[in-house]
Structures are given as C-alpha cells and as structure tokens.
C-alpha cells in the first residue's frame, strides 16, 4: 500500500493548531513513514493537488479567498477534517459576527483607530474581501471529522491521525476529547 497523501491548510486561524501539530515531536518521524505531505504551510507546494487522501483545515472561513480555496480542497480531498475550534465553530475570528456589518468594523479598526493615514485594506486581486460573517468550515462544505480544541492538544491530534492512518474516520470521544 502506498503512502497516504496528506495535506493541511491554514484559513482564518492563528497557526496555533499547526504549532500543536508540531508538538507531536518524535511521533512525526513515525508519521512520515506512513504519509506523504503533498500540501501544507510547513511544505513548499504552491497549488493544492488532486487526489488527496486527508486534509486538515485550520481556521474559519473569513473571506472570499478562504471560501474559494475551501471548495477546491473539498473537491480534491477524500477525507476533510475540521482542525481546531476556529474551523469547528468559528471561534476567535467569529467574534466579529455579533458586531454586524463588515464596513463599520473596518472603519473603526483601519480608519478611526489608525495613528496616521487610516485607510481600508482594499486592493482588487490582492486583498480578498471579507465575508459578511465568519463561518465554520462545515457550514460551507461537507466535513468528515472534527478535532476540537484551541489548539487541540498533540495527544488529541495523534489520536485522530492514528485512526486516519489505520484507514478509519476519526471520531474522538471520552479521554481523547478531554485531552488538551
Ligand atoms: Fe489559533 Fe485556537 Fe484558532 Fe487554532 S483554534 S487557529 S490555536 S485561535
């Protein structure tokens, strides 16, 4: 059997979930025997490839670019995992949702609170427009498994990945859910 084609993606998140992934320490060496990393913020691939076996998604869906990328990833991934609370619930990025429309928020943050020369971060084709509200991944595409936590502990990530490399869909319960 060939190696599992593995990807991880960072949408609207802080990278903390990926940092927790790196906390797997020496178990990453065991994992590297079983998976081929075909796309990740910690790899150098520029284009999300086809025929990916499993993709971990860190972060919420915050802007139009996140949404477009996510649909491509869903089409090209057999197993899609919401990785961390921002992906699972919206979490920190979704704190803007109760504040209402995007424009007044941008006005306060980038214009009124600016020390000098405040302006909106607008550049067509460069700065993706924000979505009206931040959404968890499962609101936008089908999700096969969830790894909660902010960030999920390395133990919890390991429990999920052990199921994946065994050919199972991870379903974390009991102490696995409490870890971290
Ligand atoms: Fe960062 Fe927590 Fe969101 Fe992970 S779940 S991206 S650690 S804020």
How would you describe this protein?
The protein has 180 residues and is of the alpha/beta class. Helix content is 34%, strand content 21%. It has helices at residues 16-22, 27-34, 64-76, 85-89, 102-112, 154-165, 174-178, and strands at 4-10, 35-39, 52-58, 61-63, 77-83, 130-135, 145-147. The chain is elongated, with a radius of gyration of 17 Å. It binds iron/sulfur cluster. The site of iron/sulfur cluster (SF4) has 13 residues, from α1 and α4. Iron/sulfur cluster (SF4) is lined by residues 13-14, 16-17, 58-59, 84-86, 91-92, 150-151.
Key attributes of the depicted protein:
34% helix, 7 strands, alpha/beta, two-stranded antiparallel ribbon, binds iron/sulfur cluster, five-stranded parallel beta sheet, 180 residues
Q: Summary?
A:
This protein has 180 residues and is an alpha/beta fold. The chain contains 7 helices and 7 strands.
How are the SSEs ordered, and which strands pair?
Blueprint: E1 4-10, H1 16-22, H2 27-34, E2 35-39, E3 52-58, E4 61-63, H3 64-76, E5 77-83, H4 85-89, H5 102-112, E6 130-135, E7 145-147, H6 154-165, H7 174-178
Parallel strand pairs: 1-2, 1-3, 3-5, 5-7
Antiparallel strand pairs: 4-6
The protein binds iron/sulfur cluster.
């Amino acid at each position: 059997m060939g190696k599992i084609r593995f990807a991880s993606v960072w949408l609207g998140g802080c990278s903390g979930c990926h940092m927790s992934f790196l906390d797997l320490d020496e178990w990453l060496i065991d994992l590297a025997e079983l998976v081929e990393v075909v796309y990740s913020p910690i790899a150098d691939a520029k284009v999300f490839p086809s025929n990916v076996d499993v993709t971990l998604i860190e972060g919420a869906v915050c802007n139009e670019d996140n949404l477009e990328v996510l649909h491509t990833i869903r089409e090209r991934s057999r197993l899609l995992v919401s990785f961390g609370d921002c992906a699972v619930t919206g979490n920190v990025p979704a704190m803007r949702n109760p504040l209402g429309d995007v424009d007044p928020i941008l006005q306060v943050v980038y214009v009124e609170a600016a020390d000098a020369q405040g302006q909106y971060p607008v550049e067509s084709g460069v700065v993706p427009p924000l979505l009206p509200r931040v959404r968890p991944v499962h609101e936008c595409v089908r999700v096969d498994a969830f790894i909660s936590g902010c960030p999920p502990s390395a133990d919890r990530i390991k429990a999920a990945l052990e199921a994946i490399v065994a050919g199972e869909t991870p379903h974390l319960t009991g102490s696995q859910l409490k870890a971290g």
